[in-house]
Each structure stands twice: as structure tokens, then as C-alpha cells.
Design goal:
The protein has a five-stranded antiparallel sheet with strand order 2-1-5-4-3. The chain contains twelve helices and ten strands. The relative contact order is 0.06.
Length: 359
């Protein structure tokens, strides 16, 4: 089959003329596409390169490069060819070619500037990566779908938590309050010391039940977040965690926080809540410091402890707390990073872009 011959070894680098024929055989039998482009024209293509677009070497050699590239990529490819020739450099990138049957193919090319027949040209290799690109696109789409599903499930779960918290607080809390008030009425009217003691115990038990109910309700859904905002919710939760676990803690808010959308405020609080849970379970810390602030339109939340650090306090294999925090942040446009502190312990940092107030 007649084809345009590949560039001679002398045109692409030092070589001996005695190996020209073996060199040509190697090029022709190569499993990767080999090409030469000059003046916007494909001067040479081996069989592997031609086959990518469904052509034979004789069909494709001599054709304008613009005829072989997907329309959306023509300007980019031509500018890259010109850049390599102008700077005498090499370049590696991916683009989309045009198959003779009309569909587009994904190609990875690696070319370098050379002199061919006394004129500047580009010689390089190309690989059809359509199958790999297809799988990568499917993987990205699957990841996007999984994130969409996870975000939907999180919203549904938070809605259910809010409903259950409301019912526990209003219904169960209301019943316990009624019991406490009834016992107080009995205590005020009873003359028997024994009955007075029973009524007093009922009041104490009912009050404990009210406090437990309020705590369960707040853990399910922090009503304080809706009424007083993120700073108050963070302070209240940290105080509760420190009191329960014999920790010292402090919350510093460097700026007056703007009103956050409900979804962002809840995500920030849940991330903070998970961070404190991890500290209690894994860090063996004595102190927790929280810093809230706004920097250049970004909400920053830092949670620092003086525990064992990331390596020593890493949770068991299969734990997904950190992944959950990162996905929560991603779902509302933010990011979570963790690092060990030089002074010991761990720093978690949440960055959350704030809505543009002008909109």
C-alpha cells in the first residue's frame, strides 16, 4: 500500500543512514500512531495513526489537519502545533479527533518540533484513549450521581430529625411538664409526709425527664440554630460536650457572622458536631478551642484540640466520619481540611463561601 514515507532519521535526530530501513519498519509496525504535521497538513501517518480515524495511511496522508480534528477542538490543536514550532518545544495533551464515520474519538498526543525536508514540522505519537475516556466519564457521572443521592438522603434525614425533634420537644416535653406541674399541685395540698415525699420525687424525676428530652431534641436537630444562629449553637454544643467529658473549651468569634442560609448553617454545625465527637472518641484531649470568623466572603470554622494528633488518634478502618464531613462541606460549596498541629493535637478547618449579599 503506497504511503508517504516517514521522516528519515537525520531529520529528527542523529542517526546512521545504515539503519534507515529498520527504522521505517519499526515506524510502520508500531502499535501507537506516529504522525508528521507541516503547514497544517498531515505529511505522514503510519497505519496505527490512520486506523484511529478509520482510514488507511494513503487516505489520510496529505489531508489538512482541520479535516481530521473535531470541530470544537480545531482552533486549540492548530494553536498548539504553531506553539510547538514557534518555540521548538514538545507538548503532551488530549484532544478529540473525527472518525470518518462522523463520530468523535478521544486521542492523547505527544509531539515535538523538528525539521522535516528543510522546513519546520511537528512529529509525534498518538494513542486512542476513547475507551479510557468513556470509563472516566462514566466514573465521574457515577460519582456525581452518588453525591446527588447522598445530598438528597442528607436533606431527607435532616427533615426527619427536625420533625422527630419537634415532636419530642413539644409532645413528650409537654407531657413531662404536665406531670411536674401536677405533682407540684399535689405537694402543695397534701398533708401526709409520705405523700409529700412521693410528690417531690415525681417533680425531680419529671424535671430530669424534661432535661433529657430537651437534650435528645437538641441532638436530633438544634433548634437554637434556627433561632439564634450558628455562633450560639456552636457555643451551646461545646459547653455541653465539655461538661459531659471533663474537657476545657472556648469559642471565639472574630466577627459578627452574617445570616447564613439554613442548609449552610446546618452543614457547618453538623461538621462541628462530628469534629467534637471524634475528639471525644479518639483524641484523648484535654482542651478544645473553636474559632469562628469571616475572611474575604468565606466563613471559616476551626476546631483545635491538644490530643494525640491525626496519626495516633486515627479511627478504626472503615470509619467514615472524616469522609462524611468532607462530603457535607462539598454539598454546600465548601471544603474541610485536617492537619496535625506542631504543638500537638489536630486542627480541623471548614471553609464555606458565603452568599453574595448583592444578590
Amino acid at each position: 500500500m503506497p504511503t508517504t514515507p516517514p521522516p528519515s532519521p537525520s531529520s529528527v535526530g542523529p542517526a546512521q543512514s545504515s539503519i534507515t530501513v529498520p527504522y521505517q519498519v519499526l515506524v510502520e509496525q508500531s502499535l501507537v500512531g506516529i504522525y508528521v504535521i507541516q503547514d497544517g497538513t498531515l505529511k505522514y501517518a503510519n497505519a496505527a495513526f490512520a486506523a484511529m480515524s478509520g482510514h488507511t495511511p494513503s487516505e489520510i496522508s496529505g489531508r489538512r489537519l482541520a479535516e481530521l480534528v473535531a470541530p470544537s477542538c480545531i482552533d486549540d490543536v492548530l494553536s498548539k502545533v504553531e506553539e510547538r514550532i514557534r518555540h521548538g518545544s514538545s507538548m503532551r495533551y488530549t484532544t478529540r479527533g473525527l472518525h470518518k464515520d462522523g463520530y468523535e474519538i478521544d486521542i492523547e498526543v505527544h509531539g515535538s518540533a523538528v525539521e522535516f525536508e528543510g522546513q519546520p514540522a511537528v512529529i509525534g505519537v498518538a494513542i486512542d484513549i476513547s475507551e479510557r475516556a468513556h470509563y472516566e466519564r462514566e466514573l465521574r457521572e457515577s460519582g456525581d450521581l452518588l453525591r446527588l443521592l447522598a445530598s438528597h438522603m442528607t436533606r431527607v434525614r435532616e427533615e426527619q430529625r427536625a420533625r422527630i425533634a419537634h415532636e419530642i420537644h413539644d409532645l413528650l416535653g409537654g407531657l413531662l411538664t404536665s406531670i411536674k406541674m401536677g405533682a407540684a399541685r399535689i405537694l402543695n395540698r397534701v398533708e401526709s409526709a409520705e405523700l409529700a415525699e412521693i410528690a417531690d420525687e415525681l417533680i425531680t424525676t419529671a424535671q430530669e425527664g424534661i432535661e433529657i428530652t430537651r437534650e435528645i431534641s437538641d441532638n436530633l436537630y438544634p433548634a437554637i440554630l434556627d433561632h439564634l444562629g450558628l455562633e450560639a449553637a456552636v457555643r451551646c454544643h461545646l459547653e455541653r460536650v465539655c461538661r459531659r467529658n471533663d474537657l476545657q473549651g472556648d469559642t471565639v468569634c472574630n466577627d459578627a457572622l452574617p445570616q447564613l442560609p439554613n442548609e449552610q448553617a446546618l452543614a457547618a454545625f453538623r461538621i462541628f458536631q462530628e469534629a467534637t465527637t471524634n475528639i471525644v472518641r479518639h483524641a484523648d484531649a484535654r482542651r478544645v478551642n473553636v474559632v469562628l470568623g469571616c475572611i474575604s466572603g468565606t466563613l471559616c470554622l476551626e476546631v483545635c484540640d491538644d490530643g494525640r494528633g491525626l496519626a495516633a488518634s486515627a479511627p478504626r478502618g472503615g470509619a467514615i466520619g472524616i469522609l462524611g464531613m468532607q462530603e457535607r462541606a462539598r454539598a454546600v460549596g465548601g471544603s474541610v481540611t485536617l492537619e496535625s498541629r506542631e504543638t500537638g493535637g489536630t486542627r480541623l478547618r471548614l471553609e464555606l463561601p458565603l452568599p453574595d449579599p448583592a444578590r
